[in-house]
Amino acid sequence: MSREYETVIGLEVHVELATKTKIFCGCKTDFGGAPNTHTCPICTGMPGALPILNKKVVEYAMAVGIATNCEITKYSKFDRKNYFYPDNPQNYQISQLYLPICRNGKVEIEVGGVKKEIGIHEIHMEEDAGKLVHDEWEDVSIVDYNRSGVPLIEIVSEPDMRSADEVIAYLEKLRQTIQYLGASDCKLNEGSMRADVNISVRKIGQKEFGTRTEMKNLNSFKAISHAIEGETERQIELLEMNREVIQETRRWDDNKESSKSMRSKEDAKDYRYFPDPDLPPICIPDEWIQKVKDNQPELREEKLERYKKDYDISEYDASLITESKHLADLFEETTAICNKPKRVVNFILGELLRLLKEKEMDDSDISFSPENFAKLIELVDSGVVNSTVSKQVFGEIFENNVDPEVYIKENNLMVVNDDGELEKVIEEVISANPKSVEDYKAGKKKAIGFLVGQTMKAMQGKANPGKVNQILTEKLQ
């Protein structure tokens, strides 16, 4: 990016709420399912069908607003946003323009050691549209209304971000907060968290904003970063050629690393907003707000401080564990059983993260029980298995949630502590590796490591490495 310009970025983040039913009807919100099976006359926009507001949607919206330091609007309304899309069955979307449920919030982010507050203009509730499926083979587009009416909140930031790094930090903070609240799983790959990015550029020092464009429905952090960088360069090139940036909606193609125009950007007046006549205003008393506040769970910052104090683990380890609510829950539940927090942390940050990365899984997909995890840690600590075998057993727990005690017995993986058996194998290893023995006696003490490895291999990893080292040292001397 040219040093003469700075990027100005604001986000509209759509989050699907974790309610069991839709915002205005009793249809299921489960992801997937055969097309058009989670539908009814209300969410497919049938004439005469009347919406009824899901109370849980309001509570989730308030919880997110409280956690992001917003003011709760005690007298809130729904409005109709009128537009025609094939996946929008009513030809309008029920949303909130004039009196959104939350306003004037902020969250703190940190990028490169520098802390910064990002303002939240508002959070409003609305319904999702359906989904178009384009069949290129048949050359048709078909519509699935399962998603129509799924409850959303839209979190609208102030234009306070100046780089892709700040945007990602802001999104990470929102995702983390909302997951801790249990308000959404925020899975970008399933569309339960989506971001529209508003981008403009201006000369450094200029107070007025430049003309902005909007990049729609970006569903990965990688795509968001690339879209911001690509659109920034495009706008700067236009300005440097004395050409005008057009206010429009654009779509980012991550494969082509470029964007294309979708349509000119609508203003609020183009949507012909008016109050929804079928839904009464929402009156939120102080008692309801206080009840939501009282039920707020421990968020990441509080958890981080408690972990350092209660579990005596390093700030670095605590910060990694608490980045994910799923990992934090697993850590707490396992530690409550075995009371070995440092051992639990080491397994999570080592083997568990390795397996998640290797299998391209999300930590929300972890399905093994804390009981089996804790049992393995106790078996390692009591010397029943060594660290090498424990990794194999943990892999089985990860995949199949096996009982480690049963698995170890059935596969004869217990540590061999029989000195006679160990000495016999060690003597065979010494006889088979005279060069390493000579090296050790010549002062190359590292040569014993090779001999230990060969012994462990011969014992199929079931020996106690410390005992192997001790017996080898005695025999070589």
Walk me through what this model shows.
By secondary structure, this protein is of the alpha+beta class. Helix content is 40%, strand content 21%. It is built from 15 helices and 16 strands. The strands form four sheets. Strands 2-6-7-10-1-11-12-13-14 form a nine-stranded mixed sheet. The longest helix is centred in the middle third of the chain and has 20 residues. The chain is elongated, with a radius of gyration of 29 Å. The model has no long low-confidence stretch (mean pLDDT 89).
User: If strands are numbered along the chain, what order do they take across the biggest sheet?
Assistant: 2-6-7-10-1-11-12-13-14
Radius of gyration: 29 Å
End-to-end Cα distance, whole Å, is 66 Å
Give the mean pLDDT.
Answer: 89
Number of helices: 15
Low-confidence stretches: none
Estimated share of beta-strand residues: 15-25%
Structural class: alpha+beta
Largest pleated sheet: 9 strands, mixed
Please count the beta strands (DSSP E, at least 2 residues each). 16
- Overall tally of structural domains: 3
C-alpha geometry = elongated
Helix content: 25-40%
Question: What is the element layout, followed by pairings?
Answer:
Layout: E1 5-16, H1 55-67, E2 71-72, E3 75-76, E4 79-82, E5 92-95, E6 102-111, E7 114-127, E8 131-135, E9 140-144, E10 151-157, H2 164-181, E11 193-203, E12 213-218, H3 221-240, E13 248-253, E14 258-264, E15 274-275, E16 282-283, H4 286-294, H5 300-310, H6 315-322, H7 325-338, H8 341-358, H9 370-381, H10 387-400, H11 404-410, H12 419-432, H13 434-441, H14 447-458, H15 465-476
Parallel strand pairs: 12-13
Antiparallel strand pairs: 1-10, 1-11, 2-6, 3-16, 4-5, 4-15, 6-7, 7-10, 8-9, 11-12, 13-14
Helix pairs in contact: 2-3, 5-6, 7-8, 7-9, 9-10, 12-14, 12-15, 13-14, 14-15
